[in-house]
Specification:
Length: 400
């Protein structure tokens, strides 16, 4: 490693160290992203609710659902029963920033309510198909100041305390309800008093709809007395098992990217970019070719000739001249067929004339080859070395 490269590496290490020191002493900004994730400790996550819900709904079994409601409940429908029924009974719970239910899941929730189950949804916007079926409409209004919005319960038995839910509370409310089937459970104040919590009867079950999901987040459960409001809202849950939908509450998708965590941390992002930059600098300064001693590579020897000599010597030592003559004749006739497209079945005068015209060889040489081949095929004695030499010489004159 030369001196220049060492200097560049030292500078990069120094810069990297300074960035780490500066970033370590910098205050971490608060992330107000509304994740509604049960494992998220951010202000608008549901980590605290996940741990405190068992104490808020004592005696109720909490089942977390990490697939869509349709995927979870549809297989539990008791098709074998004479009376249509579900194999489970309880309350479906969904707390999210916005609608996170697909069309089939909404239909499944209506089937649940039809069979005596209850649905609790706390979100700022609801699926349109659900609102249409329940004859509801929602609106939002402009929020001038955080202190302008307060929420409280409609039932005097739960107290008249108003809770100032300012962070991410929103101003959505129910602008139209079906008064014959709907019970108002809670209000919020904005420009005027608005309905933000209702109970809607549907067949044998009920829908509990709430427009302030932020009330259940970590921030508000720890802020002043806001936990009281969340407890009052959840007090309307029936004495049944709870099926809590925890998949993609805020509509986010889980990334399988191995660099996800690195890109989520500012310090690691800078470290990643510096590492890439260092690699680029290293490659640039080491791009010039460093000549090394080129070893002498001996060329591969041509063993074809040695092989041919070995085979020839083998035949010669065996004294099998008929075998060699037969192979020479086969080779000659095959070459005539390939090179001149001739029929070699009969080596007569017609064959001799055609071969002379196509090859341009001396007709006496061609006659000699045809004569020797025909004579060899007719003889009934063992060939000697002179016969092999004669046929080989005659063939070589034609094919060379």
């Amino acid at each position: 490693m030369d001196r220049t490269l060492k200097i560049y590496i030292g500078v990069l290490v120094l810069i990297f160290t300074l960035i780490i020191v500066i970033d370590a002493n910098k205050p971490v900004p608060i992330d107000w992203t509304p994740t509604y994730d049960t494992s998220d400790k951010k202000p608008l996550g549901l980590y605290i609710l996940d741990h405190e819900l068992p104490s808020l709904v004592k005696g109720k079994k909490i089942n977390k659902i990490d697939v869509t409601p349709y995927e979870y409940f549809e297989p539990l429908y008791n098709y074998d029963s004479l009376v249509d029924d579900y194999k489970v009974h309880g309350t479906f719970l969904d707390i999210a920033e916005g609608e996170n239910l697909d069309t089939e899941s909404v239909k499944e929730l209506f089937y649940l309510a039809t069979h005596g189950n209850d649905i609790f949804l706390s979100m700022k916007s609801f699926p349109l198909s659900l609102l249409d079926s329940l004859k509801l409409e929602t609106k939002g209004e402009y929020q001038y100041h955080d202190s302008d919005v307060s929420s409280w319960m409609a039932n005097p038995k739960l107290g008249s305390q108003k809770y100032n839910l300012v962070k991410n509370a929103g101003t959505q409310y129910f602008s139209k309800i079906d008064t014959l089937k709907t019970t108002v459970l809670g209000y919020q104040s904005g420009d005027s008093t608005r309905v933000n919590f209702i109970k809607v009867r549907y067949r044998s079950g009920n829908f509990f709809l709430h427009t302030q999901p932020a009330a259940f987040t970590n921030y508000h459960l720890l802020k002043d007395n806001h936990a009281e409001y969340a407890e009052k809202v959840l007090s309307y849950l029936p004495e049944k098992d709870i099926f809590w939908y925890v998949k993609f509450q805020n509509g986010a998708k889980i990334s399988n990217d191995p660099l996800q965590f690195i890109f989520s941390q500012p310090a690691l992002i800078w470290a990643w970019y510096l590492a890439l930059g260092g690699m680029v600098v290293f490659m640039i300064f080491n791009a010039k070719r460093r000549q090394r001693i080129v070893p002498i590579v001996k060329p591969l020897t041509n063993t074809t000739i040695d092989f041919a000599k070995t085979i020839g010597n083998l035949y010669f030592q065996e004294g099998d001249h008929d075998n060699i003559i037969e192979k020479k004749i086969i080779y000659f006739l095959e070459k005539m067929r390939q090179d001149y497209l001739m029929d070699t079945t009969v080596l007569d005068e017609a064959f001799i004339k055609r071969l002379q015209l196509k090859s341009g060889k001396d007709i006496n040489d061609i006659q000699r080859v045809a004569y020797l081949i025909n004579a060899y095929r007719k003889h009934h004695y063992t060939s000697v070395e002179s016969d092999l030499i004669d046929i080989n010489n005659a063939i070589e004159k034609i094919i060379n």
